Amino acid sequence: MNKFDLFYEEISKRYLDIIHINLSPSSSFRYRCEFGYKHNSYTMYDNQKNILYLKNFKYAANSIQKVMPDLLFEINRSLDLKDKLFQINFRSNDLNKIMVTLIYHKNISNKLIDLVKSLSKLLNINIILRSKNFINFTSSKFLESTIDEYKVYQTDNCFYQPNKYLLNKMITKVKQMIEFPNDLLELYCGIGTFTLPLSKYFNQILATESNREANKCLIKALEKNQIKNIHPARISSDEVVMLFDGKKFNRMHGKSLSSFNFSHVLVDPPRSGLTKEVIQILKEFKNIIYISCNPKTYFRDVDLLKEYKINKIEIFDQFPNTEHIEIVSLLSLR
Predict the structure, then answer these.
(1) Is residue 148 part of a domain?
(2) Which interval of the chain is the signal sequence (predicted)?
């Protein structure tokens, strides 16, 4: 059985309506790619853990594919650029701007910084230079994108939804799931991919995220977009549980849970899913928007939320030709 048949077989135990599948083109869909560097090539591993040596990558966005061979050529013809280089990461955006991160296992010299500046100008890309306890960037540490009409920001080491074709469809689907909104609690909000577009629908949003870089990106976006009803808090999901138990956090910046009238909670956890403690606080809400990148942990968590039914659900083929599926769903009290 393919991944969709496997998903239907499992979901049919919990949901009987037809589920729409949002497909992606099978190439040129990735806004974000990470590679090793070895033997004058980009490297990555296949499913059997065999190392692959690449000059280009057909799944990367066209803007990334365009620059990959030129960047590799320039690196390979410079002993200083290639020495102790072990990782090359790419990010792109809706305007086809490119951010490249070069990561080294050595101290960074002024000569290397100058070479990277020249390389940045030659290829018209922003390059971030990293080694242990060191970072340097040729223009900015932030890559700016547009979601709906909102400016959003990412750095080279925070999460960003990878599929350029499905991102806006996922956001639209979440917006369509909202009925009778008051305030929203969001866990794992990241850089605000869903938070910012949802600010039009809710009176207030408490947006929680433990990653420092993602939190800085969200704050920068709030300032740029002049949004006042989103309250970012750099706290983890475990700390949100403590918050509901009455613990005070300075990182709440004076806001208390009692100042919110939550109608919805949105969770977008890592592949490991939700902890039992987080699941317990979700039971305080009438509506749970659950976004998942792992059907196995999604079904596990939904089964622990026995008081809720799956009200709406769609799946998104974020990574074509792989076993991965992204789920966007609304759980409502029975």
Answers:
(1) no
(2) none
